[in-house]
Amino acid sequence: MASDLDIARAATLRPIGDIAATAGIPADALIPYGRYKGKLEFGFIEALQPRPTGALVLVVGISPTPAGEGKTTTTIGLGDALRAAGKRTMIALREPSLGPCFGQKGGATGGGHAQVAPMDEINLHFTGDFHAITSANNLLAALLDNHLYWGNALGIDPRKIAVQRAIDMNDRSLRETVLGLGHGANGAAREQRFDITVASEVMAVFCLAKDLADLQARLARMVIAERRDGSPITPADINAVGAMTALLRDALQPNIVQTLEGTPALVHGGPFANIAHGCNSVMATTTALKLADFVVTEAGFGADLGGEKFLDIKCRQAGLAPSCAVVVATMRALKMHAGIAKPDLGTPNPPAVAEGAANLRRHVAAMRAFGLPVIVAINGFLGDTEAERAALRTALEADGITAVFCTHWADGSAGAADLAKAVIAATESKAAHFAPLYPDAMPLADKLRTLVRKIYGGDDIDLAPKAAKQIARLEARGYGTLPVCMAKTQYSFTADPTKRGAPTGFTLPIREIRLSAGAGFVVALAGDIMTMPGLPRVPAADTIGVNQNGEIFGLF
Questions:
Q1: Cis previous bond, 118, omega within 30
Q2: Is 194 a catalytic residue?
Q3: How confident is the chain (556 residues) per 10-residue block, as mean pLDDT?
Q4: Could you tell me which of 11, 63, 114, 297 has the fewest CB atoms within 10 Å of its CB?
Q5: 73 catalytically annotated
Q6: Which residue(s) pair with 298 in the sheet?
């Protein structure tokens, strides 16, 4: 069987200027990055704003499993199918992080005949956006330490520094480090952790900024440290905003690429959904909505993480309102949520499909809680049986859920034609009555309880004393009106990644609260979640290389 990379290389791509023209983007608004990639000019984006706004379709998944769900693949297949149905369509995706590419998950450009391309370039350096974000973050950290070294005129307390250095790679050895060892010329010794770039606040600020001016304003209000009297220190206080913006300016222009079928796609920004807000950039989404009648976008991991954050954080801040949501699952993943081991997933098992559907039903309920019509897309595998499909239909009937079975991985847009029809019908019905899950004025702890009870299906939160003190302090400083961004395992509704399916009767332990003032949210760390992942025992990097023709192999 051909790999995703083999399929992508066999496709005939069109010059990026032709793809841009398909989307109504003139040549003078396109900044080419080679033959098949480009960026959009700020002036062109600004000129689009008076245009009417298209329909926004949000694609999310069930709780991910090692069996795979294919959320990005489904997003791309649906976009291609909508375009094949005659709808002016664009796709808006996140950029892949090098951490998963060289770690366990692999790339993030779709799969089979539902991919964005060139997949090897997008999955690696792309247009350099993540390098710019990493550099801006680390420049900020360096300027702060430089201020400390040259006398600390602002009276910064070295024990209360919030900004961390970042790298776009999984590296567990950087979770706890010590800076400034050696002679005094190396600065004062202090503890510091590294975050993966996609977990940094600079990444979140980048993705939530509406334009270049908003980016600068958000950078300026980040709280990166405290003085000894407890007052906040921002990047503006150490004159870092201008230089950071200079590094980020070109990166902030959205990237345009294409699917294997020639549908225009804006791929821009990439925060993780388990430790950040998990959505592509506001600039890319809002630009696509001015260029197309239908925009298909995805949010990371399950509806409980990326989906909830897309709606409670991104939509709240950007004034977006989706027309419907699509929840993606596979038969194999549903069987794994019923406790079936990965080696046995190929064996037909209708009862396990029915049992595992409890996880799917809870994710559908999460999206319905926001007032959205929901469509279930089953990303098909060759081994799926009609008996399993029938068992799933029966398991979903009680909740009034209809599943659409898709084969876009193998068949491209034709395999998602029924899904496109369902999305068009849901959009044209005007059935969406979107509203965020909680009001701004609700106390932070109650916002967290609301997530646990209405989205995860649990009973309550268990606030550690440290977290309770942090919440009280943030609310006293005026940050209580911000939305919350839950950082927890993606594998379960609970904080325990081994509890698959749809567990009930649990409390969610909250160990720490962090402020992201520039991004405009408060992060709650649940259980043992880390902001710097580690590599698996056998990382994907082991099988990635370059052949004698200079072609990359091993990406999947």
A1: yes
A2: no
A3: 83 96 97 97 97 98 92 97 98 94 83 95 96 98 96 96 96 93 85 94 98 98 96 98 98 98 97 90 98 97 97 98 98 96 95 98 98 97 94 95 95 98 97 97 98 98 98 97 97 96 98 97 95 92 92 85
A4: 11
A5: yes
A6: 59
